[in-house]
Write a structure and sequence with these properties.
This protein is of the alpha/beta class. Helix content is 43%, strand content 14%. The chain is globular, with a radius of gyration of 17 Å. Bound molecules: NADP nicotinamide-adenine-dinucleotide phosphate (NAP).
Length: 251
């Protein structure tokens, strides 16, 4: 996809691995300066930055735990200080969750999992808003098709967090629309990353059997949707959930 992001700066949380890494590299190829956020995967973030810089792009690896509001604020400030502004936020960081089936799930696990996947998006948007430019600011969240499918038993906190993000997307579209800032969620289906590596082979085969395109996705399969929403051609799309899953919900 040809999208011109020259002169724009993006923050991608969880930008050093999986989908976030593919988005970081895809944005940089289109001319954006990219802040590659990580919390534990320092080496992967450094490799992502090296790949971008090796291709002539501009990137910065920045450690911030997205469950910590001050660290999130510092992440957004770092983007502005290093690259002179912040135009695009991709709140992508997420984890499968510690919690399990309802009867064993504790309140602490619930809080932890929603803090990682969903409260983190609130912190990111809150602190990005101070910097995003009116008229062309972009917010893209990484949700999940599981908000629609319900995933599998034991994934309650994950599904709850991703479903909440869809509502937050529609609410933020109302709140920030008057400033010309768009807010959308990409909901991936089954994408081959370390997050899916937890699934058993049997379950993975079952899931792929439900995909009309007949295969799982690669992180790169998601990038076009993020680029569409980030670039000028996405300026009139807001409050939407775009599923990238090989037609999984069509079956
Ligand atoms: N793969 C799929 O099939 C699929 C489907 C639907 C939705 N998704 C969503 O896609 C997003 C990316 O996941 P992925 O599949 O690409 O798996 P992944 O490679 O495991 O990526 C998850 C990223 O989130 C980051 N992260 C987790 N907790 C964090 C924290 N507290 N602070 C900062 N960063 C944190 C991780 O960074 P660190 O390692 O540095 O902590 C990692 O880079 C997630 O939101 C996930 O829910 C994935």
């Amino acid at each position: 996809m040809v999208v011109d992001l020259a002169g724009r700066t993006a923050v991608v949380t969880g930008g050093g691995t999986g989908i976030g890494r593919a988005v970081s590299i895809g944005f940089a190829r289109c001319g954006a300066s990219v802040v590659v956020n990580y919390s534990r995967s320092a080496q992967e973030a450094a490799e992502t930055v090296a790949e971008i810089e090796g291709a002539g792009g501009r990137a910065l690896a920045f450690r911030a735990d997205v469950t910590d509001e001050q660290q999130v604020a510092d992440l957004m400030t770092a983007a502005v200080e290093r690259f002179g502004g912040l135009d695009i936020l991709v709140a992508n960081a997420g984890a499968p969750g510690q919690g399990g089936r309802t009867s064993e799930l504790t309140g602490e696990q619930w809080e932890h999992d929603l803090a990682t996947n969903c409260r983190s998006a609130f912190f990111c948007v809150k602190h990005a808003m101070a910097h995003l430019p009116d008229g062309r600011g972009r917010i893209i969240l990484t949700g999940s098709m599981s908000a629609r499918t319900g995933a599998t038993a034991g994934a309650l906190t994950y599904v709850a967090s991703k479903a909440a993000m869809e509502g937050m997307t529609r609410n933020w579209a109302q709140e920030f629309g008057p400033r010309g800032i768009t807010v959308n969620t990409i909901a991936p289906g089954i994408i081959r990353t370390r997050l899916q590596a937890r699934a058993s082979e049997e379950r993975y085969r079952y899931l792929i059997g439900r995909i009309p395109l007949g295969r799982d996705g690669l992180p790169g399969d998601c990038v076009g949707a993020y680029l569409l929403l980030a670039g000028d051609d996405g300026a009139y799309i807001t409050g939407q959930v775009i599923e990238v899953g090989g037609g999984m919900l069509a079956s």
